[in-house]
Design goal:
The structure is a single chain. With about 230 residues, this protein is mostly helical. It is about 70% helix and about 0% strand. Helix 5 packs across helix 6. The protein is globular, with a radius of gyration of 21 Å.
Length: about 230
């Protein structure tokens, strides 16, 4: 290769490298923005306490009530996934990064509510104010586990660097998992719905398994808030 050819290859490599860096910066910026939106939304999400849940689902025991909550949440995230999955299959997806971000925020909101209400069902409500409980349940969503009120380190009162990092990692995981397969339009909608339903149920299984080991029976007083 002559000097001109080598110069062109070097210029191309430089341009590609610059494009990759810019793409990475945009991706990180998007993840940060989505994470910030999830954090801002969490304290505003209406979470039903145990008394409300028992009134709305009379005659059900803890496991039956938890099953109802999981089924409802899985149906909700499936609906979100179907809408975005269908949009992704269009010849020219409308603002796909925005669509994908909206899906992740929507799914996170539904799963956050599910996790908070599962803690109510199992008698393991996070202590503190509404915001402090929201932070604890965000941590549970990021780590796919139940909180442990007996271990203060697992119920942070503030969003530290580590928790934000874990939330961003969860956003990345869900973002990549939730991107529908490259398939025809209607299949894209079905895949998006099925993937979200599956992932929500998987998350619920992990959280419920964790909470069963800390469960407080309903016939005992709940004295978790100071």
């Amino acid at each position: 290769m002559n000097e001109t050819g080598r110069g062109r290859m070097a210029s191309l490599a430089t341009a590609v490298g610059r494009g990759v860096r810019r793409g990475g910066e945009r991706a990180r910026s998007g993840v940060h923005a989505v994470t910030d939106r999830i954090i801002a939304n969490a304290p505003r999400i209406a979470v039903r306490d145990l008394a409300t849940l028992r009134r709305q689902f009379p005659g059900l025991g803890p496991e039956e009530l938890a099953d109802k909550l999981v089924a409802g949440a899985a149906g909700g995230t499936a609906t979100v996934g179907a809408g975005v999955g269908a949009a992704a299959m269009l010849p020219a997806p409308p603002a796909m990064p925005t669509e994908l971000a909206a899906e992740i925020v929507g799914v996170a909101s539904i799963e956050f509510k599910l996790i908070a209400e599962l803690h109510e069902v199992y008698g393991v409500r996070a202590p503190g104010s509404t915001r402090q409980r929201a932070v604890a349940y965000l941590g549970a969503w990021a780590e796919e586990r139940g909180i442990d009120v007996a271990q203060p380190a697992t119920v942070n009162a503030a969003l530290g660097v580590q928790m934000k990092r874990e939330l961003r990692q969860q956003v990345l995981r869900r973002g990549f998992r939730n991107m529908p397969s490259l398939a025809p339009f209607m299949v894209g909608a079905a895949v998006g719905a099925a993937m979200n339903r599956r992932d929500t149920k998987k998350l619920a299984r992990k959280v419920r398994k964790d909470l069963r080991g800390k469960q407080i029976p309903w016939d005992l007083p709940i004295a978790l808030e100071k």
